[in-house]
Amino acid sequence: MNEPQKPAPVSQALPEPVLKKITFQQLAAGASEVLVEHDGQVYRLRLTRNGKLILNK
Fold first, then answer.
1. pLDDT value for 14
2. Domains and CATH numbers, the chain
3. Are 34 and 45 in contact (CB under 8 A)?
4. Which of 4, 6, 26, 32 is found 20 to 30 A from 57 (Cα to Cα)?
């Protein structure tokens, strides 16, 4: 006779990837703004005099 099939084992959840963390100073290498290209578009990431970051297309 046929034995009942066992259910497939539940897959283990993969650990969350560790995100890379860098400072704006490391990214900009001393400049106050950088150009970032993403999906064929260029964005400007700028550090203001007040220490805020602004991202413009």
1. 84
2. 29-56 (2.10.70.10)
3. yes
4. 26
Q: Give pTM, 2 decimals.
A: 0.65
Distance from C-alpha of 57 to C-alpha of 37, rounded to nearest angstrom: 10
Contacts 24+ apart (CB under 8 A), 4-10: none
- CA-nearest of 3, 50, 53, 7 to 27 is 53
pLDDT digits (tens, 9 = 90+) for 1-57: 667 777 766 678 888 889 999 999 999 999 999 999 999 999 999 999 999 999 999
Token pair recorded at residue 40: 């064929």
